[in-house]
Amino acid sequence: MGGVGLRRWVAGAAALILTVEAVGIVLLHIFLSMVVDEQQMSMAGLEPRSMSLSAVVAGGLFGGYLLLCAAVLVRTAVRDRAPTGLLRIVLISAAVVHGLLGAATVGLVGWAAFLFMMVVLGLIVWSLVSYSVEEAAEREGPPPGPAGGPAAPAAPDPRPSAS
Predict the structure, then answer these.
(1) Could you tell me the residue range of the domain that residue 51 belongs to?
(2) According to a count of CB atoms within 10 Å of the terminal CB, is the N or C end of the chain lower?
(3) Which long-range contacts (CB under 8 A, 24 or more apart) does 88-97 make?
């Protein structure tokens, strides 16, 4: 398998793992919401119901973010082109988030969770690095210029004229 085929598989695998992670994050937040509701926990005078609802909303937003990242990676794998602009920034932010979560999980959850986060981080970074922006620019061709437009005026001759 060549480099092009491998990078498509890596982007596809990263998208699949991010999709599974998104579902897991949403389910985890729903579980945490149920725990807060059942225990009637409150913090700093907040109602347990508002904390429960906030946990579900946060899980939904984070899950949506991970699904957006997965969609960008699927698009990258299918089109075999580097994500540019805002889509590239979304993937870079996902890599940063996974690096920070990996650092936090090693102490809170354990080495297995850290390993998972680092694998996801590696797949995202591999997808970003294997698709170079310069390669995408080459495929699109040279930037459009004035087609048949007037020629630019000639620059004046800097030498003094002999008259």
Answers:
(1) 1-39+47-138
(2) C
(3) 88/128, 88/133, 91/124, 91/127, 91/128, 92/128, 94/18, 94/65, 94/66, 94/69, 94/124, 95/121, 95/124, 95/125, 95/128
- Lowest-pLDDT choice from 6-20, 82-96, 107-121, 145-159: 145-159
Provide the token pair at 108: 């809170």
**pLDDT score at 69:** 96
pLDDT at 146 over 70: no
Is 29 a member of any domain?
yes
Q: For helices 48-79 and 3-39, what crossing angle results, to 10°?
A: 170
Q: Which two tokens stand for residue 128?
A: 């970003």
Is residue 70 domain-resident?
yes
